[in-house]
Amino acid sequence: xxxxxxxxxxxxxxxxxxxxxxxxxxxxxxxxxxxxxxxxxxxxxxxxxxxxxxxxxxxxxxxxxxxxxxxxxxxxxxxxxxxxxxxxxxxxxxxxxxxxxxxxxxxxxxxxxxxxxxxxxxxxxxxxxxxxxxxxxxxxxxxxxxxxxxxxxxxxxxxxxxxxxxxxxxxxxxxxxxxxxxxxxxxxxxxxxxxxxxxxxxxxxxxxxxxxxxxxxxxxxxxxx
Length: 225
Ligand code: IPE
Ligand code: IPE
Ligand code: MG
Hints:
The chain has helices at 12-18, 23-43, 63-79, 101-113, 130-143, 153-158, 205-216, and strands spanning 4-8, 48-52, 89-93, 121-125, 170-173, 192-195. The chain has 225 residues and is α/β, with parallel strands linked by helices.
C-alpha cells in the first residue's frame, strides 16, 4: 500500500467533447470524481493524496474555461463545511497570489478548519508548477542568507510547498497522456508511475484499486539492487 498517491486529474475536456458537451461540463464531472476518490482514499486509510487541479500553465486556456474551473473550486471550498465529519485534512499547494481574494480566504478557512483532522491529508494543487515551486524555494533559501555549502537536498525539500509531506510513492495519470506536465518534479525522483486510458471523470474506485494492486507488486530499488 502506498503512503502517498499523487493524481494528475486529466481528460475532463475530452470526456465532455465525446458527449458533445462544453469543456466546463467535463470539469463538473471531474470534480465529482475527485470528491469520491478523495473519500475512498480516506476510507482505505491512505495517509496522503495530492491532486493536480490547476497548473501554472493552465492560465493559457480561454478565460471562460479558467473561470469555470475557479467557480468549481469556489463551490468545493464552500461545500467543505458538509464534509467536516470526514476527518480529512486539506492543504493547498501552489502560488495563491493571482487567485481571487474570496478563494484565498476560503482556502485558508478550509486549512484552518481541518488542521486537526487525523485521517487522509489531501493536498490540492492550484496554480501549481514544479518549476515555479523550485524557483520559489531557491528564492527563500537565498533570502535566508544560508551559505552555499549549507544547501542540501533536505533544505530544498523543506522549502517546497510540500514540506513535511513524504514524496509520492505512486503517481497516477489517466487520460492516456504519458508526461508529468510540471507536476511534483522534485518530489517524483523515485515515484512509481501508473498510466491509464480512462478519462478522469470515468475514473472509479475500481481503477484506483487496480492501480494500487499493481503498485504492490513492484520492486522498488532506489538505485540499489
Ligand atoms: C484536466 O482535464 C483538468 C485541468 C487541466 C484543469 P483537461 O481539461 O486537461 O482535459 P483534456 O486533457 O483537455 O481532455
Ligand atoms: C495537467 O494537465 C494539469 C492538470 C491536470 C491540472 P494538462 O491537461 O494541463 O496537461 P498537458 O497540457 O496535457 O500537458
Ligand atoms: Mg489535459
